Amino acid sequence: MPSYALLFEYDGTPFVGWQRQATGLSVQQVLEEAAAHLNGGEVPTVIAAGRTDAGVHAEGQVAQVTLAGDLPPERVREALNFHTKPHPIAVLGAAVMPEDWSARFSAIGRAYRFRILNRRARPALDLGRVWHVQRRLDAAAMHEAAQGLLGKHDFSAYRATACQAKSPLRTLDRLDVARLGDEVVITAAARAFLHHQVRNMVGTLVEVGMGRRPVSWPRSVLEGRDRGRAGQTAPPEGLVLTGVRYPEAIDWR
Amino acid sequence: MPSYALLFEYDGTPFVGWQRQATGLSVQQVLEEAAAHLNGGEVPTVIAAGRTDAGVHAEGQVAQVTLAGDLPPERVREALNFHTKPHPIAVLGAAVMPEDWSARFSAIGRAYRFRILNRRARPALDLGRVWHVQRRLDAAAMHEAAQGLLGKHDFSAYRATACQAKSPLRTLDRLDVARLGDEVVITAAARAFLHHQVRNMVGTLVEVGMGRRPVSWPRSVLEGRDRGRAGQTAPPEGLVLTGVRYPEAIDWR
């Protein structure tokens, strides 16, 4: 029973999120039902490196699936792309992995991008891909504030109430904020994130960007460890899982 | 009766194109019906700098409209953004213009971008925004071939049969082809373009990129002045009107 890694992108708009739910169609369900065609009709379990919420997109999500037959990875990729139609999911690569490899637990890094459209007019071309903030943001102040969150901390203040992680300790490796014309783009990297951590950090940094809070505030929220003190959870549509890192190079086909 | 310039973006996917047509909803119709709310209910004519086809997008389209009342441009912008809802059109700016100014005839430059997604897997995140070409393209060869089209020429070979321009003479100022990861991006600039000119040039350059035709071919097609000899018309969804230039600086509000 060979184990495959899958590298794929999706538009999160029409899905209830990565994870299977009774309330609607998930990315996991579409992939598992597509994989069943390669598994003698039996629906296998597909496990992702990062479980994204409803509306969150992915450019470089990684998942694993074990199939009954020995298929070349190119075949797995092509067949999944055929059977996931017409849903906005595209498998970019597949690879045969050792039995002890885990998409989730072997990952040593996850990276996200969050896009804010910072202008008066609502988004037309980027509808569903950005958070629209009309008030002018000071991206330099947001970046400076973000640097106070780097390193290993108890991120309880930036954690969703529903977060199932055993420990609130996480090590934030990168949190950059930059202005690109009308956009303010936040890039975040860590070994792993808590549930809603990126969106809560973004919502908190935006308070600084609007001038409502000082640059030191996101750090003091962190130290308070109290979710009630942080800014709002930024909306999901601005968020994209851009990539997952593993210690070994994966031979994507 | 003040004349206003409008700067706006739109997602071309749901429209029959810029121009009003009996067959469906156009960008022009949505804008004109929105402008009627500022014009005592009378539907004014909105004239665009570049009439885009169905499925073609715009990041920086410019148009003009004459309204009965004297309104500050900020008000025109905000009201149009309100009344164009929920259509994917966003007015980025408005300006009061002299009576002899024409969005179409005063323009001295138009710029387009065409995006090709060049990979095996179909697009998920960029569905409707790219032309999907699976076979690997040689972007450097395409760029070299494109340089043979620069300058003032009779572009009959790259013109749509339906093109209404009086003269097939156009001066192509820029036609760059560059690879950005999985994408091949073509940028084109000229004072004006013939109908389908960009898409026909892209379709022809792709033949070179696939190695089916030599680098010299697009130039020899140009010299043949015969539409039948050029490559296919690239699909509309990869094309975006990125901007329109005027001799004077416009004070967008």
What does this structure look like?
Two copies of one chain form a homodimer. Chain A has 253 residues and is of the alpha+beta class. Chain A folds into two domains: 3-106, Alpha-Beta Plaits; 109-243, Alpha-Beta Plaits (2-Layer Sandwich). Chain A is built from five helices and ten strands; from the N terminus they run βαββαβββαβββααβ. In chain A, strands 1, 2, 3, 4, 5, 6, 7, 8, 9 and 10 form a ten-stranded mixed sheet that branches. In chain A, β8 and β9 (183-190) form a beta hairpin. In chain A, α1 (27-36) crosses α2 and α3 (139-147) packs across α4 (197-209). The longest helix of chain A has 13 residues, at 197-209. The radius of gyration of chain A is 19 Å and the shape is globular. The mean pLDDT of chain A is 97. Chains A, B: Substrate binds at residue 112. Chains A, B: This is tRNA pseudouridine synthase A. Chains A, B: Formation of pseudouridine at positions 38, 39 and 40 in the anticodon stem and loop of transfer RNAs. Chains A, B: Its EC number is 5.4.99.12. Chains A, B: One of its GO terms (biological process) is tRNA pseudouridine synthesis.
Q: Short summary of the structure?
A:
The first copy, chain A, has 253 residues and is of the alpha+beta class.
